[in-house]
Amino acid sequence: MAVPAGIVALAILVVYAAAYVFYGRHILEKRVVRASAERKTPAYTKFDGIDYVPANKYVLYGHHFASIAGAGPIVGPAIAVAYGWALPILWVIFGNVFMGAVHDYLALMASVRHGGVSIMTVSENVMGRKAKYIFLLYVYSALILVLAAFFSVNAKLFAVQPSAASKAMIYMPIAVLLGILLYRTRLSPAASTLTAIVLLLAGIAFAVKYPFLIPGDAYHTWMLLLALYSFIASILPVWYLLQPRDYLNAYLLWGFVALAIIGSLGIAGEGLTGPAYTSFAPKILGGVPTPFWPAIPLIIACGSLSGFHSVVASGTTSKQLANELDALLIGYGGMLTEGAVASLAVIIPIAYAWQHPEFAGFLQAMGMSPEVIAAYQEKGILALNKIQRFTLGYGFTVGQALGGSETIAVFMAKFAGIALATFVLTTLDSATRLARFAWQEMFDWLAERNQSAYKIIANRFVAGGIAVLLGLALGYPNVTINGKQVAAFNIVWPAFAGTNQLLAALALLTAALWVYAVLRVRGAASMFIQIPAWFLWITVTAGLIWWIVKVLPTYPPIQKIGAGSIVIISLIVDFLLIYLYVTGLMKAKKAEAAKAVER
């Protein structure tokens, strides 16, 4: 018997609401961090008009959510449905509540309490100076993989869905205009926002009707254009593009999530046509059997949890937080919102459309080839590629919920592609900016010895340019899998996902040590952070070792050397950081014991 979609959607929403109120507010905010509106945040104490700029609570929520919600919560779950829909949803919910949202909130608050520094610098305060530079090296490597994967995903999306490219080109000038209206005119925030939203809606309608087509090799042309965009956007003041763009993005993305909820509840009485469970080890990565544990973090790179979030939270968000009490919505709430994207906007729609009797007709209306339609009829939705599973599943589900109109379903599928492009673009320039920060922090020791050399190496143009070039070099070439030329993200994705999830484990362990050693929290509240952190570390470390042994040998030479080297170095750095973590924890316990003796 098919499980009704409404029961699954309602259960997810109830769990998220309960987690936010009882775990987020009553335990993390009030008992662990003890947030206070009276403490001045770094946005005020270090205000510089470029990176340290206080932001409105909802503007910052929009920036943070748009920055963390890249392709991960969409592409990863769209791949993971090969296990069936139940296991991916359970991983997303469990990861959100006990690891991801906790990780994001604590990384943000630890940074705020240390003057807006990165989670890597926080690690120095609790694990020693060596930990900072080892952590920085790890984070920088992970960010290069983020850039490589997302350059490739976005270029592929723009090449196959030009309407998403049109929207992106129209969108940026609107965001700049909004920044000017908000920060350089006397127009009220409400009027500025309304003006920008009207222009945005008109831009989306224009983009759907007039897609931007690049003749010839569109994929590689977009790779170069996206690299140039990321570099320029990452060096501009945050108020000029980043804040207003992500604030405006939030309205688009909230609309996207709201439609997903409407879609899931609109088909509440209908059953999910896909299987809840297919196999514990279907062939997913590298064409080899991929066990759910420990490989799932290598597939769902975001949506459940993400180490990239700790870098965003402590890299840009903490520098813009105006009030400590805003952090729960932004940090914990932002992660739950991303989880809603993964579960309600990706997994449920795919599970609904899987073998739906009307989906083949919808594919025909979308202009899909007879070969693709025949493959779907034979194998179900897994016959489609990852991006198609998401965009077409989303469009079909929302269309069915809104009356079954094929025209609406087609429009919603295109809208899903535009939303995906919005997710990815914001991640690209945020990742470039964060890589610039990490690069500059890696060389801060040089400032004391040779100020002139430091100014050259840490110059934002140099630091940003190096990150973009490294990411582009890894993501630019096509790769061959089973005799077929495909975009690089098909190879880079599990390497990016694994290092990203391992970063989450290390950042959560750092936050747990900060809670124990600095905030001096003991008992169940501390263990609720420590135990999930160790579970995550064991899972991801085992997953990466499995990937090196089973999957890496199947890759072509350039990716075997590039992605493989980064993952192997990351594992070495991982064990060094664990050693420093244990050392830091022992020191904290000894200091506590010494104080007890003195009393």
UniProtKB/TrEMBL annotation:
It comes from the Archaea. It is found in: Cell membrane. The keyword Membrane applies. Residues 7-541 form the CstA N-terminal domain. This is Carbon starvation protein A. The chain crosses the membrane at residues 6-24, 65-83, 89-112, 133-152, 164-183, 190-210, 222-242, 251-272, 292-315, 327-354, 408-428, 457-476, 496-519, 531-549, 561-582. GO terms for biological process: cellular response to starvation. Pfam families: CstA. It is a multi-pass membrane protein. The lineage of its organism: Archaea, Thermoproteota, Thermoprotei, Desulfurococcales, Pyrodictiaceae. It comes from Pyrodictium delaneyi. GO terms for cellular component: plasma membrane. InterPro entries: CstA (IPR051605), CstA_N (IPR003706). Keywords: Cell membrane, Membrane, Transmembrane, Transmembrane helix.
